[in-house]
Amino acid sequence: MRLILMGPPGAGKGTQGEILEKKLGISTISTGLMLRTAIKEQTEVGKLAEQYINDGKLVPDDVIVAIVKERLSQPDCEKGFILDGFPRTIPQAEALDNMGIIIDKVVDIDVPDENIVNRMSGRRVCKACGSSYHIENKKPKVEGVCDSCGGELQIRKDDAPETVLDRLNVYHEQTEPLKDYYAKCGKLRSVEGTAPIKEITASILKVLED
Ligand code: AP5
C-alpha cells in the first residue's frame, strides 16, 4: 500500500498516520516531522527550513523533493508507505510521479477552516519524538508528558493563531489543487475529518478497500 494523507493543517494527518502505521505495518513519512527534526539538529536543511516553517510558508519544492526521494529509497519503504504532508504542490506531485512511484490511494481528511484554529490551539507535541496530543481530544496519560517516549510536551511555534491562518491560506492556494490532480486519475478518496479520531480511522480503512 502506497498511501498519501492529505488535508489542511490540523486535519489529523499525523494522528491518523501514527495509527495507520501500526495497523498496516508500513512506515509513515511525515515531511513536517522530518523538517522539525532537521531544525532541532541544525542541519543545513533545518537552517534553511526554519524561517519558512515559522512564517507558515512552504519550504521550496527542490529541498523537500530531495529529502523525500532519499527517504523513499530506504529499505522499509519497499513494502509500502504512508506520506503525510507530501506532496503539497503540483510540482511535488509531478516529482513523485517522475520518481516512478505508483501511488495506490490519496485520502483527503476534510475539516472546515473554522474547526482548525480551535484544534491547533489545543495541540501539544512531544519535544523528543514529535507525537501529537490535544488538551481535550487526545490527552496524554500524564499531563505534559509523551505516552510514547516520556518526552516533554510543548506548543508548536507555527500553531500561533495568526500563523495557522497563513498556513490555511497556503493550503487553499497551493495544496488544494492536488485534489483535482488525484481525482483525475481516480485515486482520491475523501473522509469526514470532524468525527472522533477512531471513527476517522475506520472511515479511512473502509475507503482503502475500494
Ligand atoms: P506539517 O507538520 O506537515 O504541518 P501541517 O500539514 O500543517 O499539518 P499539521 O502537522 O499541523 O496537522 P496534522 O494534519 O498532522 O494534524 P494532527 O494529527 O497533528 O508541516 C509543517 C510545516 O513544514 C509546513 O507549514 C511547511 O512549512 C513545512 N512542510 C512540510 N511538508 C512540506 C512540503 N511537502 N512542502 C513544503 N513545505 C513543507 O492533529 C492536529 C490536532 O488535532 C492535534 O492536537 C490532534 O490531537 C487533534 N486531532 C486530530 N484528529 C482529531 C479529531 N478527529 N478530532 C479532534 N481533534 C483531533
Structural overview:
The chain is an alpha/beta fold. Helix content is 47%, strand content 16%. The radius of gyration is 16 Å and the shape is globular. The two termini are 13 Å apart. The model has no long low-confidence stretch (mean pLDDT 95). BIS(adenosine)-5'-pentaphosphate is lined by residues 7, 9-15, 31-32, 35, 52-53, 56-59, 64, 85-86, 88, 92, 119, 122-123, 132-134, 137-138, 158, 167, 196-197, 200.
Topology:
Elements: E1 2-6, H1 13-24, E2 27-30, H2 31-40, H3 44-54, H4 61-72, E3 81-84, H5 90-98, E4 105-110, H6 113-121, E5 123-126, E6 132-134, E7 153-154, H7 161-175, H8 177-184, E8 188-192, H9 197-208
Parallel strand pairs: 1-3, 1-4, 2-3, 4-8
Antiparallel strand pairs: 5-6, 5-7
Helix pairs in contact: 2-3, 4-5, 6-7
Bound molecules: BIS(adenosine)-5'-pentaphosphate.
BIS(adenosine)-5'-pentaphosphate binds near residues 9, 11 and 86.
Keywords:
five-stranded parallel sheet; alpha/beta; globular; 210 residues; binds BIS(adenosine)-5'-pentaphosphate; 47% helix
